C-alpha cells in the first residue's frame, strides 16, 4: 500500500500494590514507577533484588520469615493478600508486562515482545492461583495478544520498507494466526467470566483485526500474482481481500474514528486494485479465474518471539545488594559444582596426556628436531666462532711469519747444540781410542799416577747433555710436526674470507631432495602447531575453570534445580572441548603424514649428516689451529730458551773437552817417554861405528816398534 494505516492496540492496566513489610522507600519507588522505559528498568531491578532476597531468607509460602503481601486484582478491584514473597515477584512481573504493553500501544510501536516475554515467564514460573488476572488462561491470552501486536508492528515496518509482497503476506497471515489464538481464548466461557465487560470490547476488536489483516495478506498475494503475471490469480486474491475487508468493516461499528479512517483508506487501495485487475483480465488477458480454495494457502511467518526474562541478569538488576548473605547450602552446592568442573578437567587431561605420550614417543623414535632438520642456511655463512678467529688474525698479519721465524731460530739453536755435543763426543771417543792404544802398547803396565781427571767429568756432563738433547729432540720434532699441521690452517684463517668459506664443505641437493625436505619441514610445523594449539586450549580451559564461580546463581536457584543449573553452566565448556577433540583427532593423520615424509627423507638425511659432520670437523680443526698458535709460540720460545742455555753449557763443555783431551795427550807422551828411558842401551857391532842399540822389542819387524812408531 502507498501508506500504512494503523489499527489501535490493546494495553493492560497496572496492578496496584498494597501491604508488604519491606522498606517503605524501596516499596514506593518499585511500585509507583513512571510510565516509560525507565519505569520498566526500575521494575526489573526490583524484581531481581526480590529474587536475591528470597533465595537467602525463607520468605516463601509457609516459611518462617513469610510476611503478608497485598496487591489489587485488575478486573474486580479487590485486594488479594498472600504470605509469599513470590506473590510480590509475580505482581511486579505482571506490571512489567503491562507497562511494556502500554508503551507498545504508543506511536513508536515497540516493546510488545518484551511484554510477551514477561507474561510468558510469569505463566511458566509462578503459581496461577494468586489472583484471577494471573491465571493460566488470562496470561495465555495476554501472550497471544502481545505477540500478535508485535507481529503487527513488524508488518507495518515491512510495508513501509517495501519488502517483497510474498513476505508481507506471510507476516500478515501470522498476525491473523496470533489473533485467532487470542480470540479463541476470549470466546472461552471461563475466560469471559474472568474478564467481565472488557471481554466484549477486546473480542470485537480482535475479530475485526483478524479479517482486516487477512485482507492485507490476500492483497499482497494478489500483488505477488501480478508480479508473476498470473492475472487470473490476481483477480481472485484481490476479490478475497475485498470480501474480508467488508467483513472487517461490519465488525468495526463502534470503533474509534482512527479505525474507520484506516478501513476507508484500505478499501480505496483494495477496491482500486480489484477493479483494475478485473477490467484488465476481462478485456486484455482473458485468464481463467481459479477458485480461492484451489490456491495454496498463505502460511504465516512468525518473526517475533517472547523475549526471555532473566531475573538475575546483573546487567538488568544491578549489583546484588544481598551478595554478602550466602547460605551454607549455596557453599555446599558450589563445592559440588567445583567437583563437576574438576571431573571435566580430569577427563579432558586424561585424553590430552594419552595423546601427548604417544606423540612424544613417536617424535623420540623419529629423532627429528624441527630446529635442525633443515640446517642448509648454516652453510651459507662462516660460523661466528670462525669469524672471530679470522678477525683476530686480520689484526695480526705477521702471525704465520712470526711462527715460522720462531721455529727457524729454534732449529738453528738446536743444530748448534747438536754440533757441539757431537764434537765433544768425537773428542772423547778419539781420546779413548788413543788411551786404548797406549794401554795395548804398554801391556800390563797400569797408567802412571797423576793422569788428568778432567776427561771423566767432561764425559759425565756430556752424557747428561746428550740425554737432555735426546729428550728435547723428540719434543722439538713434535713441535715441528704440530707447526706443519697448523701452518696451512693459519694461513687460510688469515687470508680472504671467500677462501675460508670455500674451504668449508657444503651439501649438494637435487630439486627432488629439496622438495622432500620442504615437505618434511611443513609437516613438522604442523606437529608444532598442533602442540601449541593443544597447550593453548588446555590453558584456556584451566583459566576458564579457575574463574568459573556461580555462587551468586546458586544462591538464587532452588535446590531442585541445581542439577539442571550445573548442566547448563557446564555447557559453556562445550566449545573448548570440541576444539580439543578436533585437535586430538587430527594427531593420527599428522603422524601418518610425518611417517611417510620421514621415509622419503632418509637418504637426504644421511647425506646431510655426512656433510654436517665434515663441516663441523673442518670448523673444529680450523679453530683448533688458531688456538694452537699461542701454544706453539710459547713452546717454541721455551725451546729456544732451553737450547740457548744448553748451547752455552755445551760450548763451555767443548772448551773443557778440548783442554782435557790436550792434557790427556800430553800425559800419554810423558808416559811413553818414561817407558823408553827404562829400556837398556843398544850393544855395539863391529866393524861398524858404535851406535846405540835399540831394545829387542823395538827391532825392525817387531810389533812394539810399530805401535810406538804410531804414537
Automatic annotation (TrEMBL):
It is found in: Cytoplasm; Endosome. Residues 414-444, 520-547 form a coiled coil. GO terms for cellular component: endosome. Residues 27-359 form the BRO1 domain. The keyword Cytoplasm applies. Residues 679-693 have a biased composition (Pro residues). Residues 698-711 have a biased composition (Low complexity). Residues 664-711 are annotated as: Disordered. GO terms for biological process: early endosome to late endosome transport; endocytic recycling; protein transport to vacuole involved in ubiquitin-dependent protein catabolic process via the multivesicular body sorting pathway. The keyword rRNA-binding does not apply. Residues 665-678 have a biased composition (Basic and acidic residues). Keywords: Coiled coil, Cytoplasm, Endosome. Transmembrane segments: none annotated. It holds the Pfam family ALIX_LYPXL_bnd. PANTHER family: PCD6 INTERACTING PROTEIN-RELATED (PTHR23030), TYROSINE-PROTEIN PHOSPHATASE NON-RECEPTOR TYPE 23 (PTHR23030:SF30). This is PTN23 phosphatase. It comes from Menura novaehollandiae (superb lyrebird). The lineage of its organism: Eukaryota, Metazoa, Chordata, Craniata, Vertebrata. The gene is Ptpn23.
Amino acid at each position: 500500500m502507498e501508506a500504512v494505516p494503523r489499527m489501535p492496540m490493546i494495553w493492560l492496566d497496572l496492578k496496584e500494590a498494597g501491604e508488604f513489610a519491606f522498606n517503605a522507600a524501596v516499596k514506593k519507588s518499585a511500585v509507583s514507577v513512571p510510565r516509560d522505559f525507565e519505569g520498566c528498568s526500575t521494575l526489573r531491578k526490583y524484581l531481581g533484588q526480590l529474587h536475591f532476597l528470597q533465595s537467602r531468607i525463607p520468605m516463601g509460602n509457609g516459611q518462617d520469615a513469610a510476611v503478608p503481601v497485598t496487591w489489587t486484582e485488575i478486573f474486580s478491584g479487590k485486594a488479594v493478600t498472600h504470605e509469599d514473597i513470590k506473590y510480590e515477584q509475580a505482581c511486579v512481573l505482571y506490571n512489567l508486562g503491562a507497562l511494556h504493553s502500554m508503551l507498545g500501544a504508543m506511536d513508536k510501536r515497540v516493546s510488545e515482545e518484551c511484554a510477551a516475554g514477561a507474561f510468558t515467564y510469569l505463566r511458566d514460573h509462578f503459581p496461577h492461583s494468586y489472583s484471577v488476572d494471573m491465571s493460566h488462561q488470562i496470561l495465555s491470552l495476554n501472550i497471544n495478544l502481545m505477540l500478535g501486536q508485535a507481529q503487527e508492528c513488524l508488518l507495518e515496518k515491512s510495508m513501509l520498507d517495501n519488502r517483497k509482497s510474498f513476505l508481507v503476506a506471510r507476516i500478515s497471515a501470522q498476525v491473523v494466526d496470533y489473533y485467532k489464538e487470542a480470540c479463541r481464548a476470549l470466546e472461552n466461557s471461563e475466560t469471559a467470566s474472568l474478564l467481565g465487560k472488557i471481554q466484549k470490547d477486546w473480542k470485537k476488536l480482535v475479530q475485526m483485526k483478524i479479517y482486516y489483516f487477512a485482507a492485507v495478506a490476500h492483497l499482497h498475494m494478489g500483488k505477488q500474482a501480478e508480479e508473476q503475471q498470473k492475472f487470473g490469480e490476481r483477480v481472485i486474491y484481490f476479490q478475497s481481500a475485498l470480501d474480508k475487508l467488508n467483513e472487517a468493516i461490519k465488525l468495526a461499528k463502534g470503533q474509534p474514528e482512527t479505525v474507520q479512517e484506516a478501513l476507508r483508506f484500505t478499501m480505496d487501495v483494495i477496491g482500486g486494485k480489484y477493479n483494475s485487475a478485473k477490467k484488465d483480465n476481462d478485456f486484455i488477458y482473458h485468464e481463467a479465474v481459479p477458485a480461492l480454495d484451489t490456491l495454496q494457502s498463505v502460511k504465516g511467518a512468525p518473526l517475533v518471539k517472547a523475549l526471555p526474562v532473566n531475573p538475575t541478569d546483573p546487567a538488568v538488576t544491578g549489583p546484588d545488594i544481598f551478595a554478602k548473605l550466602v547460605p551454607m547450602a549455596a557453599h555446599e552446592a558450589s563445592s559440588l559444582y567445583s567437583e563437576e568442573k574438576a571431573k571435566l578437567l580430569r577427563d579432558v587431561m586424561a585424553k590430552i596426556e594419552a595423546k601427548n605420550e604417544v606423540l612424544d614417543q613417536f617424535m623420540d623414535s623419529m629423532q627429528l628436531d624441527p630446529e635442525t632438520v633443515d640446517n642448509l642456511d648454516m652453510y651459507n655463512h662462516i660460523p661466528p666462532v670462525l669469524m672471530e678467529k679470522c678477525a683476530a688474525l686480520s689484526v695480526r698479519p705477521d702471525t704465520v711469519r712470526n711462527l715460522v721465524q720462531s721455529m727457524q731460530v729454534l732449529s738453528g739453536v738446536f743444530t748448534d747444540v747438536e754440533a757441539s755435543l757431537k764434537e765433544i763426543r768425537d773428542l772423547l771417543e778419539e781420546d779413548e781410542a788413543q788411551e786404548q792404544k797406549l794401554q795395548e802398547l804398554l801391556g800390563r803396565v797400569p797408567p802412571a799416577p797423576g793422569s788428568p781427571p778432567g776427561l771423566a767429568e767432561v764425559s759425565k756432563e756430556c752424557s747428561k747433555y746428550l740425554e737432555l738433547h735426546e729428550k728435547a729432540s723428540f719434543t722439538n720434532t713434535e713441535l715441528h710436526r704440530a707447526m706443519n699441521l697448523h701452518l696451512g690452517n693459519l694461513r687460510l684463517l688469515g687470508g680472504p674470507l671467500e677462501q675460508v668459506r670455500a674451504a668449508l664443505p657444503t651439501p649438494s641437493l637435487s630439486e627432488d631432495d629439496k622438495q622432500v625436505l620442504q615437505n618434511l619441514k611443513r609437516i613438522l610445523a604442523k606437529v608444532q602447531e598442533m602442540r601449541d594449539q593443544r597447550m593453548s586450549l588446555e590453558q584456556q580451559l584451566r583459566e576458564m575453570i579457575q574463574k568459573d564461580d556461580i555462587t551468586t546463581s546458586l544462591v538464587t536457584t532452588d535446590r531442585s534445580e541445581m542439577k539442571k543449573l550445573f548442566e547448563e553452566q557446564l555447557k559453556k565448556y562445550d566449545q573448548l572441548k570440541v576444539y580439543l577433540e578436533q585437535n586430538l583427532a587430527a594427531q593420527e593423520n599428522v603422524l601418518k603424514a610425518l611417517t611417510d615424509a620421514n621415509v622419503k627423507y632418509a637418504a637426504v638425511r644421511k647425506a646431510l649428516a655426512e656433510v654436517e659432520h665434515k663441516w663441523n670437523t673442518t670448523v673444529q680443526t680450523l679453530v683448533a689451529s688458531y688456538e694452537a698458535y699461542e701454544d706453539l709460540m710459547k713452546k717454541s720460545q721455551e725451546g729456544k730458551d732451553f737450547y740457548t742455555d744448553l748451547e752455552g753449557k755445551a760450548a763451555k763443555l767443548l772448551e773443557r773437552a778440548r783442554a782435557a783431551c790436550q792434557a790427556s795427550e800430553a800425559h800419554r807422551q810423558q808416559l811413553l817417554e818414561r817407558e823408553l828411558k827404562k829400556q837398556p842401551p843398544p850393544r855395539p857391532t863391529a866393524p861398524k861405528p858404535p851406535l846405540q842399540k835399540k831394545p829387542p822389542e823395538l827391532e825392525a819387524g817387531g810389533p812394539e816398534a810399530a805401535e810406538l812408531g804410531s804414537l
